Amino acid sequence: MSPSERCEETIIHEDHVRAAQERLVDGLTATHLAELFKALGDPTRVRILSALRGAAAELCVCDIAATLGMSQSAVSHQLRLLRTLRLVRHRKDGRMVYYALDDEHVERLLAEGLDHVGHG
Fold this sequence. Notes:
The protein is mainly alpha-helical. The chain has helices spanning 14-23, 27-39, 43-54, 61-68, 72-84, 104-118; strands spanning 59-60, 88-93, 96-101. The chain is elongated.
C-alpha cells in the first residue's frame, strides 16, 4: 500500500466506526453476495443473462446456445449455476426446458451493472 492510500496518523472516529458497524452485513450474507458477484464475474454467464434479459419470451437451451454460438451442453452447465443462485428460473415443457430471468431484481442488477460500465 502506498503512503497516499493510508492515513498518516491513526485516529479512530468512534461515531463513524459505530455507524459503519451498524450497516455491516453479517458473514453469511456477505458469502451469498460474494457468490452472486462471482457468478456475474464470468462473461459467458453475463451473456446468457443478457440474452434472457433482451428476449421477448422465455428461451429454451437450444435458443440460448444458438444466440451465443455455444454448445447446448456448455450453456446447460452455466444455466445450472445461474439457477442455483436464483438468477434464472426454468420451466420444463415435455422434452424442452425454457429459461427466463428469475425476477425483476436480476433485471435491475443487470441494468445497473450495464449503466455503471457504460458510465465514464
